[in-house]
């Protein structure tokens, strides 16, 4: 059993990164791997199937409703940003953008927060370097903030589901860490993002079609279903190898999240048998590292894709910021 689960884990970690067709059909691939893991781990039963069908519903409905609302109020959003640029100092606007998106992402989901970010950034007319910096700092903020509720992003959904925890569990566990980080990223935006010329303005991308909203919601549903299966299937492996690992080791191990989806790693690592300090270390490692490179988190992928930010452009700013944040949080909170 252990050998089979290790092979499945290796496939889950390597193939989406190495094979482009699998990356494009990630949800379906993970669902197949999740079913295989659940069967191999001896965890497949009627209860797990019911859980796999039910658990994705809250975040899926949130993504769907928030996506429709965002599309309906698209013009008001772009008009409001142009108005704010006239009455508010640019650097204050950047700070508020990063902080507010981080805070509301736990309610509107990281996906919709990223779409708002892309729209607002396109309206600001920033120079390329400043645009990239603002997007990366905001994606760090969104990725962290969305983890505070089970409906914010897949990582938080699967974590709460695996631990059978209450809605406020993640806020109670990492809320202070996350809110502090969001504030710091907002301040950094004021320092590192240079305003454009006053007369400059950009053109935001057009609103996405309704069909894309429904397609994305369906993909989220399948993704969470797959992670539920994976998490259950890997439970015997976690019990055997990870429950006694020191929190500091777990924290640095999860730098893998820079290149691998952090929700998948959460499904493969977190167990109700772990102490809260170990779970906290895993989550902070995943969330901070997830902002370093484009594949690490959903907001990164959405923003980079729509604004055509290359992997190199992202890494030149995202990696140093993430490494400093990792060291700071390790010293003050994990060590």
From TrEMBL:
<keyword id="KW-1133">Transmembrane helix</keyword>
<feature type="transmembrane region" description="Helical">
    <location>
        <begin position="57"/>
        <end position="74"/>
    </location>
</feature>
<feature type="transmembrane region" description="Helical">
    <location>
        <begin position="169"/>
        <end position="193"/>
    </location>
</feature>
<dbReference type="InterPro" id="IPR012443">
    <property type="entry name" value="DUF1646"/>
</dbReference>
<feature type="transmembrane region" description="Helical">
    <location>
        <begin position="282"/>
        <end position="302"/>
    </location>
</feature>
<keyword id="KW-0472">Membrane</keyword>
<feature type="transmembrane region" description="Helical">
    <location>
        <begin position="28"/>
        <end position="45"/>
    </location>
</feature>
<feature type="transmembrane region" description="Helical">
    <location>
        <begin position="314"/>
        <end position="332"/>
    </location>
</feature>
<feature type="transmembrane region" description="Helical">
    <location>
        <begin position="220"/>
        <end position="238"/>
    </location>
</feature>
<feature type="transmembrane region" description="Helical">
    <location>
        <begin position="94"/>
        <end position="120"/>
    </location>
</feature>
<feature type="transmembrane region" description="Helical">
    <location>
        <begin position="132"/>
        <end position="149"/>
    </location>
</feature>
<protein>
    <submittedName>
        <fullName>Putative cation transporter</fullName>
    </submittedName>
</protein>
<dbReference type="Pfam" id="PF07854">
    <property type="entry name" value="DUF1646"/>
</dbReference>
<keyword id="KW-0812">Transmembrane</keyword>
């Amino acid at each position: 059993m252990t050998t089979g689960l290790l092979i499945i884990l290796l496939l889950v970690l390597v193939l989406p990164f190495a094979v482009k067709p699998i990356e494009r059909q990630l949800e379906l691939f993970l669902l197949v791997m999740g079913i295989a893991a659940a069967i191999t781990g001896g965890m497949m039963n009627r209860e797990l199937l019911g859980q796999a069908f039910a658990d994705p519903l809250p975040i899926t409905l949130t993504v769907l409703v928030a996506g429709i609302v965002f599309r309906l109020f698209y013009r008001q959003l772009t008009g409001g940003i142009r108005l704010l640029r006239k009455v508010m100092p640019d650097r204050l606007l950047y700070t508020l953008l990063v902080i507010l998106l981080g805070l509301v992402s736990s309610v509107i989901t990281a996906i919709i927060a990223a779409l708002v970010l892309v729209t607002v950034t396109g309206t600001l007319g920033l120079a390329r370097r400043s645009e990239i910096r603002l997007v990366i700092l905001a994606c760090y903020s969104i990725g962290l903030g969305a983890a505070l509720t089970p409906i914010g992003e897949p990582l938080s959904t699967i974590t709460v589901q695996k631990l059978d925890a209450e809605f406020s569990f993640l806020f109670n566990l990492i809320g202070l860490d996350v809110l502090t980080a969001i504030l710091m990223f907002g301040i950094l935006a004021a320092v590192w993002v240079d305003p454009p010329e006053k007369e400059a303005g950009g053109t935001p991308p057009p609103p996405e079609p309704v069909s894309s909203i429904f397609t994305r919601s369906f993909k989220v549903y399948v993704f969470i279903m797959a992670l539920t299966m994976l998490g259950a299937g890997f439970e015997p492996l976690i019990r055997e190898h990870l429950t006694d690992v020191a929190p500091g080791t777990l924290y640095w191990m999860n730098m893998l999240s820079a290149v691998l989806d952090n929700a998948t790693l959460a499904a493969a690592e977190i167990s109700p048998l772990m102490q809260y300090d170990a779970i906290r270390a895993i989550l902070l490692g995943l969330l901070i590292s997830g902002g370093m490179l484009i594949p690490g988190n959903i907001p990164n992928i959405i923003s980079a894709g729509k604004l055509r930010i290359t992997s190199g452009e992202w890494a030149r700013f995202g990696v140093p910021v993430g490494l400093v944040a990792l060291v700071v949080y390790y010293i003050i909170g994990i060590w």
